[in-house]
Amino acid sequence: MGAKAKIEKFWTGDPIDSLRVNPGFSLADVDTTSTPGFDGKKKHSVEALRKGASIFRHQQEMFFAGSQDGDERKVLLVLQAMDTSGKGGIVRHVVGAADPQGIDHLAFKAPTKAELSHDFLWRIRKQLPGAGRIGVFDRSHYEDVLITRVRELFPLETIDERYDEINAFEQELTDDGTTVIKVMLHISSDEQKSRLAERLDRPDKYWKYNPGDVDERLHWPAYQEAYQVALERTSTTAAPWFVIPADHKWYARLAVQHLLIDALTRMELSWPEADYDIKTEKARLRAS
Amino acid sequence: MGAKAKIEKFWTGDPIDSLRVNPGFSLADVDTTSTPGFDGKKKHSVEALRKGASIFRHQQEMFFAGSQDGDERKVLLVLQAMDTSGKGGIVRHVVGAADPQGIDHLAFKAPTKAELSHDFLWRIRKQLPGAGRIGVFDRSHYEDVLITRVRELFPLETIDERYDEINAFEQELTDDGTTVIKVMLHISSDEQKSRLAERLDRPDKYWKYNPGDVDERLHWPAYQEAYQVALERTSTTAAPWFVIPADHKWYARLAVQHLLIDALTRMELSWPEADYDIKTEKARLRAS
């Protein structure tokens, strides 16, 4: 693919294999400052991200166009991370390059009482992307095995059952033509500390800080463990996890952009053929 | 305002008054090739749009931030136009500059049977933006007085009642803190013809063409009349219409961007104060 070739220029190697969570994966062994597959620095990332954005935008339009012609495939990007890891930046700088008309962005908050009265996947199912659309989940059904596990909001047996339920759910999505891209942005505890400190230093960032952020932070090791278990148990062939070192925001953005471009490239998209007679239509138009 | 001053540089005058639909307005008298308030050419518009995007992005973030602090105001941008007028380009190039997390984009298609069994505003109400969000309606409740009138889908008396119902509805939105920005992108019949012809000439545009587009085109005068009536009867103090000459796509984009920036500027936004004690939180964070 031409698009593929253009991307390779900016990468020393395809980072996908080294980012994918395979058997034996250990979250603790990931260097959060590393930049797998990308040899450049921040200054080199700007141009790479810009070029990637143009490729992504083009592919996303073709993907959307295909759905108008009966292609029923969908993409779902799941973003999970500790606070301040840069999910918002991914949405702005990576997803934001695409046409808003083809993006379904959803930020999942703590479930409401009504939502809690249903199965945990109930509210997730309602927000799944339709054909030709890229759904972006900022937090997701994985909160139901992360914060719930750390805070002991449900019995461990209930949580334990959910990993299999999630795998079955994601297999169903895949069978239905959804490419599920699951991303954990991974920062160090020290990096989080300095990002939270910045929010307390800048009046234009005060609103992003919440005293509850420090409460959660005190559970850092328990969260890392909950992530480790979730990654182990739900990184499947149908819907693998990618853990992206995110101390360098610019790298995380490049890597997620790369995952999106890779997924769309593998779809082998093309512009839909006309489903009308072009000559006839030209004549009708001329006469109108 | 600083932002306001920066915008003025690119404009010879504020275009808002000349774009607003006031009593005595006549759609037929609008020159679709004109560029009210902007003296430059296409090449000058690029930099103006880029600078405007940065102002818009900044204001939109502040608007969103305010909602986390209890500000309940909302913005609703309604886009109406004949086919090929460039609604999609507005969404991509103007709205697309903002953070996708703060945008609710909705494209209204022909109503389903279920939707038709309700009042025409039922499906619209369900999609209204929440606090701190900018809703973007690509087509809207105005279709219920446009295509329905031209195609005689409802008795004229029913449609006639709807203008008042729309005014009451929009007054209610305004009372509830929603700034309603209603935009009609206005192109000439010849411009539409050449844009449709382009879609029939370019394989990457075939998917955007639909034989029904020519069917609708044959009703051009009736649509212009339906627009004239809608504009006359629903351009209110609470929710005025703006008719934007759109034969130059670049001008239409600048003008809609200007309307959005103007609306946000008039809100006199500022970053929310911290609702926690900064010193205490810094100490807690240090200790964490």
TrEMBL record, chains A, B:
GO biological process: polyphosphate metabolic process
Superkingdom of origin organism: Bacteria
Domain Polyphosphate kinase-2-related positions: 70-268
Keywords, sorted A to Z: Transferase
SUPFAM superfamilies: P-loop containing nucleoside triphosphate hydrolases
NCBIfam families the record matches: PPK2_rel_1
Protein name per UniProt: Polyphosphate:nucleotide phosphotransferase, PPK2 family
